[in-house]
Amino acid sequence: MQRKNEEMLSKILNTTPDSVMISRRGDGRIMYVNPAFTRMLKYTEEEAIGKTISELDLWISKKERKTLLSKLDETSKVNDFEAEFYTRDNKILPGSLAATYIELDGEKCVLSVVHDITGRRQVQEAIRRAYHIQQALAEIMRISLQPLTLQETLVRALDIVLSSPTFCMLKEGALFVTREDGNTLELVAHYNLAEPLQTACARLPFGKCLCGRAAASREILFVDHVDESHEISYEGIQPHGHYCVPILFGERVLGVLNTYVDAGYARKAEDEQFLKAIAQTLALTIEHKRTEQSLQKSEAQLSKIFNATPDAVTISRLEDGLFYYINPAFTSMFKYTPEETLGQTVSSLNLWVHPEDRVNMVRELDKVGEVTGFESEIRSKEGNTLSVFISACKIEMEGETCLVTTSRDITERRKLEEQYRFTRFSVEHTGDALFWIEPDARIFYVNDAACNSLGYPRDELTAMSVMDIDPDFSEGRWRQAWLELKTKKNLKLESIHRRKDGTIFPVEIKANFLEYGGKEYNFAFVQDITIRKQAEEMIKHLAHHDLLTGLPNRTLFMDRLEHAIARCRRDETMLAVMFLDLDNFKPINDSLGHATGDQILKQIAEKLASCMRQTDTLARFGGDEFIALMTDLKSTEAPAQMAEKLNMMISEPFSLGTNEFLLGASIGIALYPEHAHTSERLILLADKAMYEAKSRRKVYQFADSSI
Fold first, then answer.
1. CB under 8 Å to 268, separation ≥6 — which residues?
2. Would you place residue 55 in the very low, low, confident or very high pLDDT band (cuts 50, 70, 90)?
3. Measured between alpha carbons, how far is residue 557 from residues 224, 450, 574, 666, 676 in Å?
4. 224 SS3 class
5. Are 1 and 9 in contact (CB under 8 A)?
């Protein structure tokens, strides 16, 4: 039972997708790693075991490791400890770590299990980015409602943009607005702009330098270094790059937003998404500020701005939520018309699914003066519950404190995010490798388990075909298998896969025919069955070999003898069956015990096997009896010489510890076809000849076919 438990534990450790490591508490020296450790951190078992954690430089933050050990010392167990680790190829692996103390060979050790949370970090980063974009847009809209001049507003808006953690901009940039002639940019706000540029760029015609060309083309212009496209330059200019973003309102160019990035910075789609959203909000702000200079005179223009935004905008009395204004997006989103809403309160319309959320939002407003990204649920006129992001601020209007709120419907996004997280979690945490394969055998999608099992990164694997990873599949066989799969819808087969390093391993494939998006796919679950195959081979070996000596057993010997007789009959050749019994072995068993006897039998088996030819078979027949098969004989001299050789080998002293033993052997020999023609008869005659040799104290004795 203990051995079975150990095998089960070993199988679990070798197949779990999480990295498992055991290290000494004292010096951090690694004593064990599982296969997932080598796949995840790229260190082989030989490279890791024996090294210390410091020598491998696994922890990015040594302080975090000290914190973990301190917690372990306090509680002996730590769960869900997030940290970052260096892989062997110097990549950063974020992980969730569980650790506990165990004792091995009298030493205090740390058992660490690390789960890869790269996917979770990516989702968090996407949510964080969306939050910061929403926060920046809400902040710009908030200051656009304040009684500031256009220049004051844009100076503060530029500071908001350059302070955003959404992407890695330098704290340097400029805002231009289009002059009345419609063909010239005017510098109205800048941050850390060099004095020569402030002068040279004060007025900039459309088409000149980077900002002028962005205005003329109405497209985002990106450069990653200072080159000839920088028509305006100065002595001592430092290396840098730019995003130049046109600020568009319909067909009109209202200005250009110019942000600086480090030289060599790579253009990113998410950067442009953020900057486009900022430019759209700046367009609304510029348009509003050009027509109104104070909040009291801007009601009509604010209405225009609010009407243009896809977010629901309301103005309501802070005290009781009485509505003074709603934009068309509010009606579109919550299905209430202005006639049904204005003059009503949030309570009378029963808008808030959780009324305490509004209380909490107002409380937050009282503390910090504004709220951005407040999540809640709003009930529509039709009774549907919508998840929304709410940004809010206070304004004074006609002597009353009012609330300006902007609500963005995130219901579908939440569903998609939840579905994505659930699907991603399910796919990436299954133990099997998953493949989506197209009809032409090209690999369309794989999960992490597939990448780990084959040693390829995802982008390389999805550029390959089935024939690249499965040596058993040719194009012809794939076409036949595809037609069979389309007919049966499900197939189960065994094959082999080839890793990137060239190693081959057996797999079990469960293939499923699916149609998705008008296309046909093979959705295949692939399982590494190396351990199962090894177990099958072990079982097969044990069924045909002696457990103590490893020699063929009686069953395997009889099978080989039957085949040898058939060959001799066909080729008209000779074979010999040699039955060997040890002399003086029983007293050793009786006096020193079977354990000592077993050790001597193992030594004897090794010595006897070393004497045999490669074409011969030596088997243990039972107890201290051995039997040998010699084929392709031309005379009786070969078995006689072999008998002498075997006896000489056995007659040499055997040492075991401080004891030395002397043994001998009696050998009976039966020949085909001279003595018998069947396997049972040959063994019987060889056995009787052995007893004849023992009684006469001879080394060997040939059989008597007359018996």
1. 167
2. confident
3. 77, 43, 17, 20, 17
4. coil
5. no
Q: Report the C-alpha gap between 478 and 496 in whole angstroms.
A: 14
Q: Enter the tokens of residue 123.
A: 């989702």
Q: Is the bond into 673 cis (omega within 30 degrees of 0)? A: yes
Among the listed ranges 103-112, 445-454, 591-600, 660-669, which one has the minimum average pLDDT value? 591-600
Cβ-Cβ contacts under 8 Å for 269 (sequence gap 6 or more): none
Q: How deeply is 142 buried, as exposed, middle or buried, from its count of CB atoms within 10 A (0-12, 13-18, 19+)?
A: buried
**Does residue 441 carry a pLDDT above 80?**
yes
Q: Is 488 helix (H, G, I), strand (E, B) or coil?
A: helix
What residue ranges in 341-481 does DSSP mark as E strands? 370-379, 385-397, 400-409, 433-437, 443-446
Spatial separation of the C-alpha atoms in residues 194 and 38, rounded to whole Å: 51
Query: HEC profile for 239-278?
Result: CCEEEEEEEEECCEEEEEEEEEECCCCCCCHHHHHHHHHH
Say which amino acid occupies 413.
R
- Average pLDDT of the segment spanning 328-344: 89
Helix (H, G, I), strand (E, B) or coil at 150: helix
8 Å CB contact between 82 and 117? yes
345 Cβ neighbours under 8 A, 6+ residues apart: 316, 320, 321, 322, 323
Q: Is residue 466 within 8 Å of residue 443, measured between CB atoms? A: yes
Total number of residues shown for the chain: 707
Over the chain, what is the mean pLDDT? Answer: 85
pLDDT digit string, tens, across residues 448-489: 888 988 999 999 999 999 999 999 889 899 999 899 988 999
- The helix (H) or strand (E) run that includes residue 420 is helix 411-429
Q: What does the alpha-carbon distance between residue 508 and residue 260 come to, in Å, rounded to a whole number?
A: 54
Please give the helix or strand (H or E) that residue 188 lies within, else none. Answer: strand 184-191
Angle between helices 554-571 and 679-695 (to 10 degrees): 110
* Distance of alpha carbon 344 from the chain centroid: 53
The yes-or-no verdict on residue 438 having pLDDT over 90 is: yes
Helix axes 118-144, 150-163, angle to 10 degrees: 170
Q: What single-letter DSSP state applies at residue 296?
A: G
- Written as six digits, the tokens of 61 are 């933050």
Secondary structure of residue 25 in the 3-state scheme: coil
Beta bridge partners of 190: 174
- Which 8-state DSSP code applies to residue 297? G
Q: Do the beta carbons of residue 100 and residue 111 sit within 8 Å?
A: yes
CB contact at 8 A, 285 and 249: no
**pLDDT, average across residues 610-622:** 89
Say how far apart CA 313 and CA 324 lie, in whole Å. 11
